[in-house]
Write a structure and sequence with these properties.
This protein is α/β, with parallel strands linked by helices. The chain contains 12 helices and 11 strands. Strand 2 (15-18) and strand 3 form a beta hairpin. Helix 1 packs across helix 2, helix 8 (254-271) packs antiparallel against helix 11 and helix 9 packs across helix 10. Pfam families: Aldo_ket_red.
Length: 351
């Protein structure tokens, strides 16, 4: 796995990782799921304007999907504005996802979907397509991946990746000769399922893990330290909060979560950073993890602190020591086994 600091990231030096086919992306990615719905109203114009702050900070990699509402369109508008600004344009990376509905995966179906993303994102080639499939019993995901691999060879896409595939299917796909650059999975101090099986396979096959849910939708922060358990729609006001509160409940509940926050807060104070930075750095340091996807607050108040936390988490000045890991693991070892309760990565999306 090749990591090195960026030399063209604006005001800060954000470390990057090189994917299998050579694409360099930031190790902190700007996640655009929050514009897909369930996180409040989205104003496309304000969202486009807000993207500049991330670029100025050196956070030049955006993660989106064809099913994330206007995400690809917002990226495309910003991309177009950058190119027409007349200024020196920093390298911008756009990773999207192809999430087809069940059905025949003929080449023309795949081509049409990719062309739509190309048009929306206003690019000539897709930097990275992360493929998701809802039902493993329907083996046509292999047909789709075969076409994606062919289109990659033809230059339509640069990196071919997966989203929420488990280790068994990852092994199956690569055994067919399909080269996979990364797999996007949930990975956090709460959900450490990738460490059970997937990390080892990914390290052996030069496949990066791009992780989401690393901050549990914002629950892994000082804001919830000592806070009463959120249970109502008013206190779980976004899709992210609701989703990751359910994960915490399965993992061990609010009392154990408070023990974790107390531990993280003590580490953060010793290291001069935030709980969010510690939680992110813990996952960044895991084997096979190429990058962490942090929800992008496009046009939302408080984005400045959010960006600052992200930069701190990947700073070489922040190092988690053996004593920090021991303190964290003293809490997490008391949790339930999510591999046993849920299954491998992505199984929560499949019945």
């Amino acid at each position: 796995m090749e990591f090195h600091p960026s030399t063209d990231c604006g005001m800060s030096s954000v470390p990057k990782v090189r994917l299998a086919e050579g694409l360099e992306i930031c190790r902190i990615l700007n996640g655009m799921w929050q514009v897909s719905g369930g996180h409040g109203a989205v104003n496309n114009t304000k969202a486009v304007e807000a993207m500049q702050a991330y670029i100025d900070a050196g956070l030049t990699t955006f993660d989106m999907a064809d099913i994330y509402g206007p995400a690809e369109e917002i990226f495309g508008l910003f991309n177009s504005q950058l190119k027409s600004s007349g200024n020196v344009v920093p390298a911008l990376q756009g990773l999207t996802k192809y999430v087809p509905r069940p059905g025949a995966m003929e080449r023309k179906v795949v081509e049409k979907a990719l062309q739509r993303s190309i048009t929306q994102m206003q690019v000539n080639t897709l930097d990275c397509v992360q493929f998701h499939w809802w039902d493993y019993r329907d083996k046509r995901y292999l047909d789709a991946l075969g076409h994606l691999s062919d289109l990659q060879q033809e230059g339509v896409i640069r990196e071919l990746s997966l989203t929420n595939f488990d280790t068994q299917r990852l092994m199956e796909i690569t055994s067919k000769g399909i080269r996979i650059s990364s797999n996007q999975v949930q990975y956090s101090l709460i959900d450490q399922r990738p460490s059970a099986r997937m990390e080892q396979f990914c390290v052996a096959n030069n496949i990066q893990l791009l992780t989401y849910g690393t901050l549990a939708g914002g629950l892994l922060s000082e804001r919830y330290l000592g806070a009463p358990e959120p249970t109502s729609r008013a206190t779980l006001s976004t899709a992210s909060l609701s989703k990751y509160k359910n994960m915490i409940d399965t993992w061990g509940g609010w009392s154990l979560f408070q023990d974790l926050l107390i531990t993280l807060d003590a580490i953060a104070k010793r290291r001069g950073c935030s709980v969010a930075s510690v939680a992110t750095r813990y996952v960044l340091d895991r084997p096979a993890v190429g990058g962490v996807i942090v929800g992008c607050r496009l046009g939302v108040t408080g984005a400045g602190q959010h960006i600052s936390d992200s930069l701190k988490s990947c700073s070489p000045e922040l190092k988690l020591l053996a004593e920090d890991h021991a303190a964290i693991e003293a809490v997490t070892r008391r949790s339930r086994d999510l591999m046993e309760l849920i299954g491998d990565c992505g199984d929560e999306y499949r019945s």
